[in-house]
Automatic annotation (TrEMBL):
<dbReference type="Pfam" id="PF14542">
    <property type="entry name" value="Acetyltransf_CG"/>
</dbReference>
<protein>
    <submittedName>
        <fullName>Predicted acetyltransferase</fullName>
    </submittedName>
</protein>
<feature type="domain" description="N-acetyltransferase">
    <location>
        <begin position="8"/>
        <end position="99"/>
    </location>
</feature>
<dbReference type="InterPro" id="IPR016181">
    <property type="entry name" value="Acyl_CoA_acyltransferase"/>
</dbReference>
<dbReference type="InterPro" id="IPR031165">
    <property type="entry name" value="GNAT_YJDJ"/>
</dbReference>
């Protein structure tokens, strides 16, 4: 495996994916309605757990949403997955991206 996993948005599957070379490490399911993106379920392939892949994937998904619309474009994030909610708790500098409750 390489040392730099990459995050890609797979619109056909409605998920973000973390790959290392040709190996799928983790996925983050989403639903995008234009105004908000719900991040619904993070899943790391069992053999790859405990290596920080969910955090890398979540950070990449958040960066993609921020870059492609974000609050300036009126788009917000709804963390439906407990892991994503926890990630936002640990990254308060990204709280402006959250949809109002």
């Amino acid at each position: 495996m390489s040392t730099s996993p990459t995050v890609t948005r797979n619109d056909a599957e409605s998920r973000y994916e973390l790959h290392d070379g040709g190996t799928l490490l983790a996925v983050l399911d989403f639903r995008d309605n234009g105004a908000a993106v719900s991040l619904n379920r993070a899943f790391t392939i069992p053999v790859h757990r405990g290596q920080g892949h969910a955090a890398t994937l979540t950070a990449g998904a958040v960066a993609d949403i921020e870059t492609n619309g974000g609050p300036a474009g009126g788009r917000r994030i709804v963390p439906m997955c407990w892991y994503v909610a926890q990630w936002f708790d640990e990254h308060p500098e990204k709280s402006a991206l959250l949809a109002p409750r």
